[in-house]
Amino acid sequence: MIIAVASGKGGTGKTTVATSLALAISELSPIVLDCDVEAPNAHIFLQPEFDKRREVNIPIPKVDEKRCTGCGHCAEICQYHAIVSVADKVLVFPQLCHGCGSCTLQCPEKAITETPRPLGMLEAGPAKSGIRFARGVLNVGEPMAVPVIRELKQWQLVHDGAKVIIDAPPGTSCPVVESVRGADFVLLITEPTPFGLHDLRLAVTLTRELDLPAGVVINRDGVGDTGVIDYCQNSGLPILMRIPLERRIGEAISRGQTLVEAFPEYLPRFRQLYDQILSSSKNRADPVQTPNTETQPPSSIKARSP
Amino acid sequence: MKVAITAGEPNFEAKLEPRFGRCAYFLIVETETQDWKPMQNPAADAMGGAGPQAAQFLADQGVEAVISGEFGPNAYTALEAAGIRMFRTRVENISSLFEKFLTDQLEPISGPTSPQRHGGRRARG
After folding, report:
1. Do residues A266 and A143 share a domain?
2. A230 lies in the same domain as A83
3. At B80, which CATH number?
């Protein structure tokens, strides 16, 4: 079961919801993956102790000038224009290289070898309440977030039955697509303002493009206008939870507290949210997925449902 | 000698397009005959790496000098390796810039003139 928490707009409360959802189902030993690798911050709420670390690299070409004949084949086939062949010289632009390996494979003189270029780091370890936590950290100034997110997801998604909560980056570009890809459900966090609505529409377009079931959490409920609610009703998007705009909530989060820890009355609401997600994703006909415990909510969850 | 001038339209009387990697056209001018022809820039809409791709294109055309408004670091590195001299100028009519080039009134550059950019329309919310 993989739940991706996403949004078009930044700052809507993805991390707030992802961390409280994880704490609400902590008996199931969920894994939280902070995929917002450019600015990961879920660890501040969940306080993991990292005991595993791994560097993320991509292989970039290194040209042996003695063997290179300057034929230019590498420059012709590079989709990213990361290698140019001019005046019998071959130049590599490491920051443009996606590490696909085409140049190395296709060099007729076998003049290209690969050398690793570090993009960032993966870190994992136990966090609060039996939650397992992992995050990717992109190096500062590094444009290529996708390989870090991809390796983070491959590194930690250990077994089929795992309950995985993905804290996605904002926006709708490649890092978001990579974060939500393969999820069983996408939880879209928004706020009831024209800005929230504008970016929610973009995020919904993305989930539909990827054919992923989605539902909405409205954060800071009570401000703004009715645009988001009208839009959800008209486009068949379920509103699964509303978190009111309250000063006490803002203050608790500003102190680094999670919502359910500061206000335990939210625990049953987040458990209910999890149950709703389970039933929404199980209603979906998906022949590819092998039947596992996900088809039946664990009895412990049922017992706790209000 | 072939000179390339960055242009937004295939017209010798048009104004210079100041971006090197993402100009729509290069006007390739032969200095001896003053014949010119427009060539579409294959990198104009590239997702990334427009500078190196445009530089590779000009090197493949046998161009020896290029006139534009801005040269990024990757474009500069590739053009320099290709032995193509770079001239930076303000936006003016291409025909008058070509005259200035012929009479040595344009300044060659010795380093990139604009910062590194990634992608054509990249934004993050």
Report:
1. yes
2. no
3. 3.30.420.130
Q: Is A110 left (phi over 0), alpha (psi -120 to 50) or beta?
A: left
- CA Rg value for chain A: 22
Per the structure, the count of domains in chain B is 1
Tell if the CB–CB gap between B124 and A173 is shorter than 8 Å. Answer: yes
- The closest CB to that of A199, out of B52, B118, B125, belongs to B125
Interface of A with B (CB under 8 A): 8-10, 38, 75, 80-87, 89, 91, 93, 95-96, 143, 170-171, 173, 199
Assess: ipTM above 0.95. no
We report the CATH number of the domain holding residue A197 as 3.40.50.300
Cα separation, A234 vs A222, whole angstroms: 20
Helices (H), B1-125: 50-60, 73-81, 94-102
Q: How far is A82 from chain B (nearest CA, A)?
A: 6
In the chain, the amino acid numbered A165 is I
Cβ distance of A84 and B52 shorter than 8 Å: yes
Tell me which residue has tokens 């530089």.
B55
- Give the model's pLDDT for residue A53: 95
Q: What is the DSSP string of B62-78?
A: T--EEEESB--HHHHHH
- The domain of A19 spans 2-48+131-304
Q: How many CB atoms lie within 10 A of CB A115?
A: 11
- The answer to whether the Cα torsion of B59, B65, B67, B73 is positive or negative is positive
Same domain, A71 and A208: no
CB-CB neighbours of B13 under 10 Å: 9
Query: Mind listing the pLDDT tens digit for each residue in B47-92?
Result: 889 999 999 999 999 999 999 999 999 999 999 999 999 999 999 9
Q: What angle do CA A64, A65, A67 make, to 5 degrees?
A: 70
- Encode pLDDT of A220-251 as tens digits: 999 999 999 999 999 999 999 999 999 999 99
Beta strand residue intervals within chain A, DSSP E: 2-6, 31-34, 52-63, 83-86, 89-92, 112-126, 132-138, 164-167, 185-190, 214-221, 239-244
Nearest 5°: the CA angle A194, A197, A201 is 145
